[in-house]
Amino acid sequence: MPQKQSAEKALRKISRRTLRNDLVRKNLDYLKRSLKKARTNNDTAKVEELSKKLIQTLDKAAKRRIVHPNKAARHKSRMMKKVNLRKA
Fold this sequence. Notes:
Strand content: under 5%
Order of helices and strands: HHH
Oligomer: single chain
Radius of gyration: 17 Å
């Protein structure tokens, strides 16, 4: 346990932020799984919608440093390669 009052407050802040960040990461995983499922089912409209939503979520997570910006860019690039491969 923390000994000082400021350390106790820091611990509370860290735990709140961790919960919030975990929710964002879980949402990213859910969107990735949904997109993969839509791609295998050849649901073009759903793929378009989910890819836009995933890009938006990745950008927000990278901006808030929940995910490293390079990791977000890598995921977006790989996802769009697969989406564009389906279109062609």
